[in-house]
Known about the structure:
Layout: H1 2-6, H2 18-24, E1 27-32, E2 35-40, H3 43-74
Antiparallel strand pairs: 1-2
Amino acid sequence: ESWLVRYPGTLLMISHDREFLDAVATRIVAFEGTALVAYRGNYSAFELQRAERLAGQQSAYLKQQARIQHMLETGKPLRN
């Protein structure tokens, strides 16, 4: 782990060991749908950032659905 932390280049690591990834990773790249999404920090930071991102997407989706429902019920769009 200490060698990896000091390594100046880029390495691709695949691991299921969260403690190891927390100790050595500075960036996590995750497959999300058909895209790769990069997160800064170790694995714990990635989990937090991803949860926040997904919560934001869910919130935006629910707002969008509410707007659509309002438009269907009233026949007119909402103002921002």
